[in-house]
Amino acid sequence: MIAALTAAQAMVAATARLRAAGVADPARDARVLLAHAARIEASRVTLIAPEELSPEIAERYDQLISLRAIRVPVSHLLGEREFYGRHFRVSRDVLDPRPETETLVEAALSEPFDHVLDLGTGSGCILITLLAERTSASGVGADLSESACLQASANAVQHQVQERVEILRSDWFESIEGEFDLIVSNPPYISLSEMEELSPEVREHEPRMALTDEGDGLGAYRHIAASAPDFLMPGGRILVEIGPTQGQSVASLFQVAGLVKTRIIHDLDGRDRVVLAKMP
């Protein structure tokens, strides 16, 4: 019985289960989930390692490990994910915030802005981070998913930017009004042919509409490029996250739309990650 195990023994057993299930970093996940089951900080797991787990904690831990073994993402089990030093509430209704997306945030923060539009806002992590870092700015987040809009609204309240943000259900620019000096987006850029290559955590537990356009992976960029000039102020910037092979294609779409000074920005691994363009 797991209830008779010490915390250390339970972690060893959990790690073995996760490794057998093909989880990429089983020891880390076993540790994080034990902390969550015990309702303590992960840094304190070592302190309870010699102690026998209570039946309540053991049962919670067993349930969490069972879910992780069928590849439910850790963030969904915890209900949150860290992004740019802040914790955001997440669920299967929104794309998990990823470290690579911080490249877009860094690029956006490199120049001043007052009014930002985030297309396909999801959890709101990009928009809310930008507003939290620029306390004089305001913004609009748009998403076709009503569930995503609710999640973004909750995160806006959690990070105390709700007075400066508007979350709208919109099919790209459909319900958007006004002009912005910054437009950002992390749209679905995985092609239909690439979907089967994704990990089970992503393919089976994240919203499909946030992952793929069901085509060549460039559909969202075509929509965004075609309409962005109508919503950008003169000199305004647009930054979009891309897949590592899409830089030149997306930059060309922006150039054809009349945007200028296009630039491809690399992430920390040296891969193409963001395309930047400006309104003349």
Output the keywords:
single chain; elongated; Rossmann fold; 7-stranded mixed sheet; 2 domains; Helicase, Ruva Protein, domain 3; alpha/beta; 280 residues
Give a brief rundown of this model.
The chain has 280 residues and is an alpha/beta fold. The chain is 38% helix and 19% strand.
Task: Describe the model.
This protein has 280 residues and is an alpha/beta fold. The chain has 2 domains: 2-70, Helicase, Ruva Protein, domain 3 (Orthogonal Bundle), CATH 1.10.8; 78-278, Vaccinia Virus protein VP39 (Rossmann fold, 3-Layer(aba) Sandwich), CATH 3.40.50. The protein contains 11 helices and 9 strands. Helix 6 (102-109) packs parallel to helix 7 and helix 10 packs parallel to helix 11 (247-256). The longest helix is centred in the N-terminal third of the chain and has 15 residues, at 55-69.
CATH third-level topology of the largest domain = Rossmann fold
Order of strands, main sheet, comes to 5-4-3-6-7-9-8
Q: Structural class given helices, strands, pairing?
A: alpha/beta
Distance between the termini: 68 Å
Second-tier CATH architecture of the largest domain = 3-Layer(aba) Sandwich
Portion in strands? 15-25%
CATH class of the largest domain: Alpha Beta
Strand/helix succession: HHHHHEEHEHEHEEHHEHEE
